[in-house]
Amino acid sequence: MSSKNRNYTIKKTGDSYDLEQAIVSAIRNNAKDYLSPPIKNIGYKGILKTSTEIKKWFKNSNNISRDFKTTAMLMEKAGTGGALFRNLYRDFLKESASLLKSDLLQEAHAEFTVISGLWSEVSLLLDKASETKNEAYINQASDILVLLSQKERRAMELLIKIQ
User: I need a surface site. Which of 13, 94, 116, 126 has the fewest CB within 10 A?
Assistant: First the structure.
């Protein structure tokens, strides 16, 4: 399905802009929004909430194989709630660090390299849980989600300081 009225055409204008300042502004605004989510289902707060909810989902699922295999696939390959988005953001930070010659962005890139790997690990554990129906994989994923919440919060606290 597509959203109504979500079609945009981008045209180059004669106006110039400062790419470096646009990157700094985008990173800072993203970090600010991430650190101040309007509800507890978003950002690091959402990740922390998921760390407890995932155990309930497993116990209440009528089809563990389908539910957790689908969730694992979305997290790794098709959605913004896992490794796929973090991989894109990691690469954006690397490119931005190179362009801006920023040690802070290099550090954030290194953090997101670890973070994206941990999201892939969560996805793998959910996939294993879907195949085996073994709750131990869910508990391991839950522990990693707690760590991810902390790591992402620290990384965004670092990024909000970019000048």
Answer: 13
